[in-house]
Amino acid sequence: MPLKQGSTVALVTPYHPDGNIDFPALETLLNYHVESQTDGLCILGTTGEASLLTMEERKAILDCAVKIVKGKIPMMVGTGSIDPNAVKEMTQQAIDCGCDASLVVSPPYIKPPQRGLVNHFLTMADLGLPVVIYNVPGRTAVDVLPETIGLCAGHEHIVAVKEATGDLSRVAAIRAATTDLETPLLLYSGDDDSEAEFVLQGGDGCISVTANVAAAPMHEMMMACLAGDREKAMAINAKLSGIHETIFCESNPIPAKWALKRMGMINSAFCRPPLMEMDPKFNMAVEEVLKTAGVWKF
């Protein structure tokens, strides 16, 4: 399926308390997003603890997701890594499993120059799977500039950008750098705090952590933004604003997994080391924002 506008969930990976993947819980989450009209699925990204999974585990997760959502929700797969050879291997696996797109983050830690980023993204696009360029300098220590995106955008398999800087001026800047495209890139916000305004200013949607616990409201908000209905979008966003903030009270996905467990959607909030389960001092704050948003019937 081609990627589309709207709310894409950055999906968690549920585990049993012993750290093994909880596949029944994963199926529950996937069905929840189908039923909630979530517009896209981003699996094996940061929120999915992808860097802590083996290739065999990744395949099992992808096979499960394809079984549940194939043909219902477009599915992009995080295939980013510091090593281009690993990115190729993970991207080929996503192709073999029948996924719809890859989410390729700029290689973290090593701070490649902009020309190195261009080469990296074009090399991965040459594999044939649609590519979403992922810019998150807060984690990678390198900023993929709009001009760099412009140099990549002519490739037929570069189809979208996830912009997680929180900088709303990037919408216009990326549009300006890609004016010659026959089919415009999809621009997704990767920052829950600013995603509504990002889309109201000309973006196409979001890749959201909040959508893990508020799938239907996130879909409704994105549809309002895309329709230009600022009043409705901001009313929904006001109810979700506490989640946007509190779901990052500790490193992602720690609070999101605790919230899903509290809501009864997964059985364990276990995160693989070096991550941990959420510090109990945040429990009450997370409960309160779930109640305020109306997503948890306590």
Annotation keywords:
298 residues; alpha/beta; TIM Barrel; 8-stranded parallel barrel; 12 helices; 43% helix; globular
Which percent band covers the strand fraction?
A: 5-15%
Distance between the termini: 37 Å
| Domain count | 1
CATH superfamily annotation: Aldolase class I
Order of helices and strands: EHEHEHEHEHHEHEHEHHHH
How many E-type strands?
8
Helix count, DSSP H or I runs of 4 or more residues: 12
Structural class: alpha/beta
Helix content: 40-55%
From the spread of the alpha carbons, the general shape counts as: globular
Indicate the CATH architecture: Alpha-Beta Barrel
Estimate the mean pLDDT confidence.
97
What is the CATH topology assignment? Answer: TIM Barrel
Strand ordering within the main sheet:
1-2-3-4-5-6-7-8
Structural notes for this entry:
The chain has 298 residues and is of the alpha/beta class. It has one domain (6-229): TIM Barrel, CATH 3.20.20.70. Helices cover 43% and strands 12% of the residues. It contains 12 helices and 8 strands. The protein has helices at residues 23-35, 55-69, 84-97, 114-125, 137-140, 146-152, 169-177, 195-200, 215-226, 230-246, 254-262, 283-293, and strands at residues 6-10, 40-43, 75-78, 101-105, 131-135, 158-163, 186-189, 205-208. An 8-stranded parallel β-barrel has the order 1-2-3-4-5-6-7-8, surrounded by 5 helices. The longest helix is centred in the C-terminal third of the chain and has 17 residues, at 230-246.
Task: Summarize, please.
The protein is α/β, with parallel strands linked by helices and 298 residues long. The protein is built from 12 helices and 8 strands.
